[in-house]
Write a structure and sequence with these properties.
single chain; 199 residues; 3-stranded antiparallel beta sheet; two-stranded antiparallel sheet; 5 strands; 51% helix
Length: 199
């Protein structure tokens, strides 16, 4: 909690960084609430619609969505129930395991996402104003923090390079065995469509 003490912040750059990240996190929450309110959706419901739009059906199952958003399966199930009731999503039963189902957007759901997926634009605009090298350094530092948090089991890295079986890290280098190429920091992905979890 010291990071939120102005005296601690004034003497420690770490405290300033933590407080800065918390303010950015708060901005995301505010933007999500504002966007969701316009469509009578909770932030989680809006995030689910956006996620379903941009990811394959393998990831659009209750178990995976619960991991992705760090909530219980019951919370996801209730959100999906309400989104189904609003006719924004529909469930398709798994042909092999009839207890499992995949969630898809309805045409109405796709329309909501196209109208309401702009909650990140304000933050992206702020980042856009940075110089190219500033963006690359910022990304490098953020991804390093995420990796450390993942190793401490505080965050999950479902589709990041760090958790992929094709990723190799050496002394100051990284390599993707799928693409057969070395990876610079700016090449690392947070959400890779070709990601395969480490065995």
């Amino acid at each position: 909690m010291e990071s939120f003490d102005p005296n601690h912040q004034n003497a420690n750059i770490e405290g300033k960084i933590v407080a800065s990240l918390e303010r950015i996190s708060e901005a995301f929450k505010v933007l999500l609430w504002q966007e969701g309110k316009e469509h009578s959706l909770t932030p989680l419901q809006l995030q689910l619609l956006v996620f379903i739009k941009f990811h394959t059906s393998d990831y659009c199952k209750v178990n995976y969505l619960a991991q992705e958003f760090n909530v219980t399966k019951a919370t996801i199930s209730e959100s999906i129930r309400l989104l189904t009731k609003k006719e924004y999503v529909f469930k398709e039963k798994d042909a092999i395991d009839t207890r499992s189902f995949t969630i898809h957007l309805t045409p109405k759901g796709k329309e909501i996402v196209s109208q309401g997926g702009s909650f990140s634009e304000a933050i992206e605009k702020a980042v856009h104003g940075l110089e190219k090298n500033q963006k690359e350094h910022l990304f490098q530092h953020l991804i390093t923090i995420i990796e450390k948090l993942q190793k401490a089991e505080i965050v999950t890295t479902q589709r990041m390079c760090f958790s992929c079986r094709f990723y190799e890290k050496g002394e100051g280098t990284a390599y993707c065995r799928l693409l057969n190429m070395p990876l610079l920091q700016k090449d690392l992905r947070l959400d890779c469509p070709e990601h395969q979890a480490q065995l």
